UniProtKB/TrEMBL annotation:
GO cellular component, one term: mitochondrion
Disordered: annotated span: 64-85
Comp. bias (Basic and acidic residues): 64-73
Comp. bias regions, Polar residues: 75-85
Protein name: Inner membrane protein
Amino acid sequence: MGRSCKSIRRDLADCLLHSDCMFIHGKSAQECMKNKEQLPVECRNLMTSFGECKRQMLDMTKRYRIAPEKDESSETSNQPSQEAK
C-alpha cells in the first residue's frame, strides 16, 4: 500500500473505533463496514476515499503521468509588445 493511503487508513480505523457500532454495540470493524448505514457519515466518506486511493495506486494510466511544465519565455514572446504600437 502506498504511503498516501496510510493516513486515510489510519483515519478510517480511528473513526471506526469511535463509532457507536464498535464502541457501544461491540461489533467488529468488518461487521460495521458491511453495515454502512450504522456508521457516521464521516466514516462512510473515509471508506470511499480509502477505496479510491487504493484504486488509484493500481491505475497504470495515472501512475506515471506528469503534468506538463509551463514555459514562461514562450508565453511572454507570443504577446505583442506595447512599444510596437
